[in-house]
Automatic annotation (TrEMBL):
Domain FHA: 264-316
Biological source species: Micromonospora wenchangensis
Gene3D superfamilies given in the database record: 2.60.200.20
Record protein name field: FHA domain-containing protein
Keyword Phosphoprotein among UniProt keywords: yes
């Protein structure tokens, strides 16, 4: 039992992040773990975060949806959590996967505002509608998790629908995210590391990718570390990045960030660091066709370059077209610049493209079912 719980907590760990390109909703961990009516269990439970994340996945019809969690510092010593749960949250804090704050204040809404993310909360933000007009103007921007038949369901504060809705990044958010920032506090898990020099860079516990830095807090218009309250220094332009998504059987299974620093290899089970492993979502035929390392993506001067590194080859679907006549073969060792809406197809039904260009929407199926009983038509390419 204990072992099972720690496995679930490990799985949840893969779904919390402060990366502005990957997080899909913002929530307050102290609030979520106390939704006792979701399971009728202990006063506080970290597993409720997993339930809410699963509900988000179902609603967005996408696997592996990460959330941006704001954590009140008091939670790290909350006696209603088990010692194991407290330890797990501390680890997330140390690794910069969550934002731990002495006084979270309006930070959850600030992050939602800067990044254009939906908020998962039951709180009524009555006094804050002037500062964040989207609270009332954009239906679905705040959703409350409520008990439902198959786990939590969402009800939008405005509009009443079940689906969390993204907004645009605020103009200030866009400006803040164009730069990278450094906190003077040694070992800052949010704005340290990243290899940008600075007096304390070598002390940072986390060498976080500069492209994945969270948005600074704004205090009187000054970019500030939300954790330490210190003024952040501008460490230069943020490296370019592109968010790519993997769609298998019509469903987005995972997103990943491509930067100019590091290519990303996608395949059945790539050995390269940072590689994206597809094995769990593939049926036997797809597993046989797709190489351990199948395609490699690089970002060069803003262009996404795809190179086939497989045994069997891939294909390009220009502009995402599913017309077979338009499919362009990509032979082993061949490279190609990936146009805006182009998709790489590793195998029929297994595609990679820019996240904003790839629609998701097949009926949602849990990943474990997908691996054993694929419903999509699997055919070998004709080339
Ligand atoms: Zn800091």
């Amino acid at each position: 039992m204990r072992f099972e719980i720690s496995k679930v907590l490990d799985a949840i760990e893969g779904r919390v992040c402060t990366d502005p390109s990957l997080a899909r909703a913002v929530l307050d961990l102290a609030e979520v773990i106390r939704y006792q009516d979701l399971d009728g269990g202990r006063p506080a439970s970290l597993l409720r975060l997993g339930m809410v994340i699963d509900a988000l996945s179902r609603e967005l019809a996408e696997d592996s949806v990460p959330v941006y969690a704001i954590v009140h510092r008091a939670l790290l010593s909350d006696a209603d959590l088990t010692s194991n749960e407290r330890m797990v949250v501390r680890r997330w804090a140390d690794d910069g996967l969550v934002e731990v704050l002495d006084n979270p204040g309006d930070r959850m809404l600030e992050v939602a505002d800067l990044l254009g993310l939906p908020v998962v909360s039951r709180v009524r933000f009555d006094g804050l509608r002037g500062r964040f007009p989207w609270l009332v103007e954009q239906p679905g921007r705040v959703v409350a998790p409520v008990p439902g038949a198959g786990g939590p369901a969402f009800v939008a504060h405005v509009g009443g629908g079940p689906t969390p809705v993204e907004g645009d990044r605020s103009p200030v958010g866009g400006q803040l995210l164009a730069r990278r920032w450094r906190c003077p506090e040694p070992g800052c898990a949010l704005f340290g590391g990243g290899g940008g020099g600075g007096a304390f860079a070598d002390l940072a516990r986390v060498d976080r990718a500069p492209a994945g830095q969270p948005p600074p807090a704004l205090r009187n218009g000054v970019p500030t570390c939300p954790r330490h309250g210190a003024r952040l220094s501008d460490a230069g332009p943020r490296p370019r990045s592109e968010v790519l998504a993997i769609r298998i059987g019509g469903l987005i299974r995972r997103r990943f960030v491509l930067t100019e620093d590091e290519p990303v290899t996608v395949g059945r089970a790539p050995e390269e660091t940072g590689g994206v492993m597809l094995g769990q979502w593939l049926n036997d035929e797809a597993r046989r066709w797709i190489s351990r390392a199948h395609v490699r993506f690089e970002l060069r001067v803003g262009e996404v370059i795809v190179t086939d590194v497989s045994t069997n080859g891939s294909g390009i679907r220009p502009n995402g077209s599913m017309a077979e006549a338009e499919r362009v073969p990509l032979a082993p060792k061949q490279s190609r610049v990936l146009g805006g809406a182009d998709m790489v197809e590793l195998y029929p039904g297994v595609q990679v493209g820019r996240a904003r260009e790839l629609p998701t929407g097949a009926a949602f199926t849990p990943t474990s079912v997908m691996a054993e009983a694929p419903t999509m038509a699997m055919r070998l390419p004709r080339n």
